[in-house]
User: What shape does this take?
Amino acid sequence: MAIAAGILLAGCASRYTPTPLAANFPTTKQAKLQAAYHWGVISDSIEKQVSAELKKNPPRPVYLNEPKQPTPFQRALATQLTTSLVNDGHVVSRSPAGALKVELDVQAVSFTANRPQYRYHGERSILGAGVWLLSEIEAPVLANLTAGIGALDAHDWFNAQFAPGETPKTEIIVTVSVSDQYRYLARSTSAYYVADSDRVLYGIVDPTPEEPKLTRTFQVRGDM
Assistant: This one.
């Protein structure tokens, strides 16, 4: 009956639509920035990508072109990126003359609030003292968990990779470019979630709600 119902439903699907059908992307993970330490982690990652491209060309000094009014995140990113470049053996100039220009661009975007968070699908059930069974996990994975975790709470261990709370509505797109006056020599773009309570650190200032008007003006017509 299930097969027959599936065939029936498939036969009812329209072969032609005026617009493409909305579909989900395959499941992926995106890091959520929650501490200044995380800024250093992504700075090191960006520097490694940029450095690999720079080493394909003759060595030249680089100069970080910081924004005139940087957000706390942009200022920290520039500082940490400078440290990573110096520690990796690059010459970081204090003047733009004769140096490659390193530019930082941070685009903060806000999506709809209360976005769904799809995490591990399944339930835990206790098998014995300190031993948990994770349902709906493939047998090889379950065997590895049983062998490696022992008496640990397997459910909490498995879900520790996910950030707590709802999916943030705030994301940032970080782009670092290295160029001269003619071309780009290296470029890195990455996206991250950020905690909605930290939006001001990334340059997002929510508008102040308008206060309700306490007075009202009436127009009087006719003789008094």
User: Anything to note?
Assistant: The chain has two domains: 28-114+167-202, 124-159.
